[in-house]
Amino acid sequence: MSEERVLKLDDSTKLVGVQVVLILAYSTIILFGVIGNSLVIYVVYKFKTLRTVTNFFIVNLAVADLLVNTLCLPFTLVYTLYGEWKFGRVLCFMLPCAQGMAVHVSTITLNIIALDRHRSIVYHTETKMSKDMCAVVIVITWAVSALLASPLAIFREYGTFDLSPDESIQVCAEKWPESSMNGTIYSISMLLVQYGLPLAINSVAYIRIWNKLKNHMTHGGRNDRSQRRKKTTKMLLTMVVVFAVSWLPFHAFQLAADIDSSVLSMKDFKLLFTVFHIVAMCSTFVNPILYGWMNNNYRSAFLSVSSILITTICFYSDYTGAQVLKNPSC
């Protein structure tokens, strides 16, 4: 049996059953991510009561997640299934950078939300961030994220790799100058910037916020404003926990590969990497579910939009005479 045949057998992602599961998993994330994040963006645009600074930052999160759902995940799935790069030179340089930028936007925005609430609740700062300043912060967030992700586009190589005299594949991979150690240094640095530092900042901020709100409630401050603040803080804290839990396996596995190169040659490395990537990408559609579950304003807005959509579909069904929906509510 040839060496290439052994390698193909060791790659579990080539099994039909595994590929079906991967297609279903990625398709589900893309579907829920696009619907959920688009709905968040729409309701904040549609309802004036939701046009607050915090919700603008939440929209920024939704845009970043939508970018991952539409521009990154479909290509990642195809690349995983085929085992080679099928999208040409330009996308080889653009897509990894776009995905890195979107992740940076998400982490930075979560930090900004936490620090803004920490400023207003812990230090009793009544002066709120203006919408103009919010727009400036969002623009800076995208600019800084693009800068941090730019090495993924700069230090990259697209070319043909010969498996045998009769077989070759297109490869899109990182290529760092001088030594591969530079790539390891960048990966570890990004692990700290994308995960370690944001998690530390969020944890400290929300622990202090929670303690402040708890003490205020204990000393007879149970008014509507305090209750709303507590509910919103609980929702935002849950978002951070989801981010931390979903990204932990992926970052831990990537760190292990950076530190010990033998991890790259372990059996089913590609499958494990893909599974951890799927778990991490679940964070791109969970946030809209959290808004609808834990925030009354978002829940009401979502129900209102859903009601309008169902009414429109039912009207169209009745108008055309087609049995599009067989539902008593129509």
Describe the structure in your own words:
This protein has a single domain (3-294), classed as Rhodopsin 7-helix transmembrane proteins (Rhopdopsin 7-helix transmembrane proteins, Up-down Bundle), CATH 1.20.1070.10. Helix 3 (53-82) runs antiparallel to helix 10 (283-294), helix 4 (88-121) packs across helix 5 and helix 10 packs across helix 11 (296-320). Helices cover 76% and strands 5% of the residues. It contains eleven helices and two strands; from the N terminus they run ααααααββααααα. The chain is mostly helical and 330 residues long. One of its GO terms (cellular component) is plasma membrane.
SSE diagram, text form:
Elements: H1 3-10, H2 16-46, H3 53-82, H4 88-121, H5 131-149, H6 151-154, E1 156-164, E2 167-174, H7 181-218, H8 224-259, H9 269-281, H10 283-294, H11 296-320
Antiparallel strand pairs: 1-2
Helix pairs in contact: 2-3, 2-9, 2-10, 3-4, 3-5, 3-10, 4-5, 4-7, 4-8, 7-8, 8-9, 8-10, 10-11
Protein name: Neuropeptide Y receptor type 2
InterPro entries: GPCR_Rhodpsn, GPCR_Rhodpsn_7TM, NPY2_rcpt, NPY_rcpt
Main location: membrane
